[in-house]
Design goal:
The protein is built from 13 helices and 16 strands. It is an alpha/beta fold. The structure holds nicotinamide-adenine-dinucleotide. The site of nicotinamide-adenine-dinucleotide has 26 residues, from α1.
Length: about 350
């Protein structure tokens, strides 16, 4: 049995890494040893001033000192010290980092930008929590895939005959000034299905799913239009919310019909970094007739994978076998449930 708190290192402190790191700081079951930072920038400075220990490449020590950061040590020290490593490096860098991890013989959680072939399990909590126990290399699937799989696995894989999803993807995260498109709509696929369907199948192998995707000039969330052909009977949106264990929440579009308004809800709720951890399904787009379910949902790309990244740590470290206990714990960490509480009174719209 692993001793609590589990010592954690976060390798890469960008959009995802900083969110994992602060979630670890707020959870008594884990202890953040520190974060690996490669660029001496505003993110590093804020983290250092917030008391997060910064580990850097040997050749960058002076560059960090120049902006007023005294590094705690080199990155290899950080990785040595930790019992669990999160790799939150830019997509495709994790496979290169893996050479380092192979020598360390400790569990690593990779992110969705890595090729699934480098891990033993691609992961999404509502689908395959129990499959990560005791595994060495696990990958939390990407933001769009997490958004799709939460719906599919809440419906029950055995009840899903076929899925078709149109993904309208945000062009970049808020800090990524150089990514686009900035004034056009870009195809985000080379063929049909787009890679999102293939990614979903890394978790649910026999899933019959097709996806198409376009990227639009926005930094605020993805939008999915989903059509799910069910084998058995239809369900209603309240049942979907319930079986997602609160990870899917319905809001009527008369109250909020843009991703901008949804992010403002997160701001008004005082959510850390304005994060929306839940899939937001627009209530009035949810229909289920003749075993065909349709819905439109919004998925906050920066935040959606963070609960799954914390859930997975309980599994991979053998801390808890009951997925519902894990979800309940992690949901309360992120105040998942508050949106449901506020918007459940919308019934008369
Ligand atoms: P990012 O570019 O915001 O952050 C990556 C960080 O890693 C940067 O701070 C960079 O300096 C640092 N880094 C550089 N070299 C490194 C190395 N050798 N090892 C470790 N870190 C290094 O990227 P991100 O958006 O946080 O994405 C990280 C991963 O999460 C990717 O696999 C991505 O596909 C996935 N992901 C991203 C999003 C999103 O919306 N941004 C959502 C879900 C999953």
């Amino acid at each position: 049995m692993v001793k609590i708190p589990v010592k954690v290192a976060v390798n890469g402190y960008g959009t995802i890494g900083k969110r994992i790191a602060t979630s670890i700081l707020r959870n008594d079951d884990f202890k953040l040893v520190g974060v690996a930072k490669y660029t001496p920038d505003y993110r590093a400075l804020i983290a250092a001033r917030q008391g997060i220990k910064i580990y850097v490449p040997r050749e960058k020590v002076e560059a960090f000192k120049a902006i007023g950061i005294e590094p705690e040590g080199y990155i290899d020290y950080l990785l040595e010290e930790a019992e669990l490593i999160y790799d939150a490096s830019p997509a495709g860098q994790g496979v290169k980092n893996k050479k380092l991890y192979d020598k360390l013989k400790k569990p690593v959680v990779f992110q969705g930008g890595e090729d699934p072939s480098i891990v033993e399990v691609s992961y999404s909590t509502l689908c395959n929590y129990s499959s990560v126990q005791g595994k060495r290399y696990v990958r939390v699937v990407s933001c769009n895939t997490t958004g799709l799989l939460r719906i599919i696995c809440s419906l029950g894989v055995e009840n899903v005959k076929r899925v078709f999803a149109t993904i309208i993807r945000r062009a970049s995260d808020p800090g990524e000034d150089l990514k686009g498109p900035i004034n056009s709509i870009k195809l985000d696929l080379e063929q049909i299905p787009s890679h999102h369907a293939l990614d979903a199948k890394t978790v649910v192998r026999d899933l019959n799913i097709e996806t198409v995707a376009v990227a639009v000039p926005s930094t605020l969330m993805h939008v999915h239009v989903l059509e799910v052909f069910l084998k058995d009977k239809c369900i209603d949106v309240a049942t979907l919310e319930k079986s997602s264990q609160g990870r899917v929440v319905a809001i009527h579009s008369k109250l909020a019909d843009t991703t901008g308004k949804l992010i403002e809800i997160a701001r008004d709720l005082g959510r850390f970094r304005n994060d929306l951890y839940e899939n937001i399904v627009f209530t009035n787009t949810f229909t289920c007739r003749n075993n065909v379910l349709t819905l439109i949902q919004a998925v906050h790309q920066e935040a959606i994978v963070i609960p799954e990244n914390i859930d997975v740590a309980y599994g991979i470290m053998n801390l808890e076998t009951d997925v519902y206990r894990v979800i309940s714990k992690v949901n309360s960490l992120f105040s998942i449930g508050i949106i449901k509480q506020i918007f459940s009174g919308e019934g008369s719209i």
